[in-house]
């Protein structure tokens, strides 16, 4: 029997394999993958949709398997070899590829492809190695244990983006980089470049996996809490991946107020009457624009900086610089404002009142941080309450508290809007009260 063109395309270039033999190999491969899927499902029922979302296709050019988010491609002989060596390797490989899809690694662009591919593999292998589940339990090499130890020193969730930054900062030599690639390589990433038409990412497929991601997180936080304890830091990574991203400028605008400002209002300017007056009288327009206009800008506002030992000085300065870069813009600031910048750890150290752009610039030039103790959010809120009672604010719209989240929160909801802000580099899942906004911002989300 001779292979058809379609069969050759599906099975790859495999000399000596007829269509009938190839179909048998495909059938065996599908059975192996289906068995791995079922075994994973019985231990990780919260992943039922994710595990069943990939179709199977044989491809002799892949080594040993890979996925593009829609299809799981496998090499029949190599897949059989993994099964003969240890079926756990097949289970781990299957879960490895599904986790790539859940975190949408193939839809994201790394700054350097080689580092990005390695970081994605380390991220999902770290989750799998942290799972206390029999279908994926496997001994870890010394290199793997040492790599995890170094990366875990920061105490942050090890998602692919963070691992990529850490690896680049290490300045790895070629020999070290190759050793890590050999250790953590599980699947073939060649299909990551073939998303959608013309090699572009498929937004519908990405949204599909995002929906699966969000449903898994909800399940782990509610019905499958016991399972989440045995799944390593999977839940933490899901939280990082599904968190809502924010534009910092747009966020600050939520604290703005509507007020008249002395400036021409072009919206009230009628060029028809203006030009008619000039043509009729020579130099006398019939109408002029209003000299005031209603605008929404920041007026009464409080920024609190956590200066405890757990919140690094460099991080605090970065946040203040980015806040300053937003507030100093003409479309964000009234000419006269009432902004208080409070530094607090377990007690209030400084409270500086800013009334103009010039004072804000002077504060940033002479910025000095005070503190270094524990973290208690209550003194800052008590200080703001004192200012309100003293009539310091006429219309306080909100308070933004920059922190790492580890501290004592107020028990009662204040009469103004409150947001606790975390920079992505220092983000840990914090138990923010339900009456406050939890905002996680990355460097790319903040205006430079």
TrEMBL record:
One Pfam family here: DUF2201_N
Superkingdom of the source species: Bacteria
Stretches assigned to the VWFA domain: 300-405
InterPro entries according to UniProt: Put_metallopeptidase_dom, VWA-like_dom, VWF_A, vWFA_dom_sf
PANTHER family: SLL7028 PROTEIN
Name the record gives this protein: VWA domain-containing protein
Species of provenance: Candidatus Mediterraneibacter stercoravium
């Amino acid at each position: 029997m001779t292979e058809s063109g379609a069969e050759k395309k599906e099975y790859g270039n495999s000399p000596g394999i007829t269509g009938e033999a190839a179909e048998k190999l495909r059938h065996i491969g599908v059975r192996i993958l289906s068995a791995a899927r079922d075994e994973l499902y019985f231990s990780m029922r919260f992943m039922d949709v994710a595990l069943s979302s990939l179709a199977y296709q044989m491809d002799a050019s892949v080594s040993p398997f890979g996925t593009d988010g829609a299809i799981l491609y496998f090499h029949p002989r190599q897949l059989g070899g993994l099964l003969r060596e240890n079926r756990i390797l097949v289970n781990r490989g299957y879960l490895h590829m599904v986790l790539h899809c859940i975190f949408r690694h193939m839809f994201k662009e790394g700054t350097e492809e080689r580092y990005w591919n390695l970081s994605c593999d380390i991220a999902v292998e770290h989750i799998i190695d942290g799972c206390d589940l029999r279908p994926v339990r496997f001994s870890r090499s010394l290199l793997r244990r040492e790599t995890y130890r170094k990366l875990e020193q920061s105490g942050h969730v090890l998602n692919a983006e963070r691992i990529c930054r850490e690896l680049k900062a290490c300045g790895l030599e070629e020999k070290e980089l190759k050793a890590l690639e050999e250790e953590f390589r599980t699947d073939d990433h060649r299909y990551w470049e073939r998303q959608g038409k013309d090699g572009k990412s498929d937004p519908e497929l990405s949204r599909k996996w995002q929906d699966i991601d969000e449903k898994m997180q909800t399940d782990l936080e509610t019905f499958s809490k016991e399972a989440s304890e045995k799944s390593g830091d999977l839940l933490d990574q899901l939280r990082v991946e599904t968190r809502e991203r924010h534009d910092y400028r747009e966020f600050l605008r939520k604290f703005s107020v509507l007020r008249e400002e002395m400036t021409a209002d072009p919206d009230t300017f009628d060029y028809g009457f203006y030009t008619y007056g000039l043509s009729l009288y020579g130099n006398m327009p019939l109408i002029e624009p209003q000299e005031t206009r209603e605008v929404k800008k920041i007026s009464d506002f409080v920024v609190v900086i956590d200066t405890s030992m757990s919140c690094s000085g460099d991080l605090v300065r970065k946040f203040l610089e980015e806040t300053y870069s937003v507030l100093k813009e003409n479309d964000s600031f009234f000419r006269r404002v009432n902004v208080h910048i409070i530094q607090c750890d377990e007690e209030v150290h400084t409270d500086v009142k800013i009334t103009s752009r010039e004072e804000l610039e002077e504060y940033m030039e002479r910025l000095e941080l005070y503190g270094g103790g524990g973290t208690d959010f209550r003194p800052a809120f008590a200080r703001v309450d004192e200012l309100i009672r003293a009539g310091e604010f006429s219309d306080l719209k909100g308070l933004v508290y920059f922190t790492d989240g580890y501290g004592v929160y107020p028990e009662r909801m204040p009469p103004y809007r409150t947001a606790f802000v975390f920079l992505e580099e220092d983000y840990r899942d914090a138990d923010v009260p339900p009456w406050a906004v939890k905002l996680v911002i990355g460097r790319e989300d903040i205006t430079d």
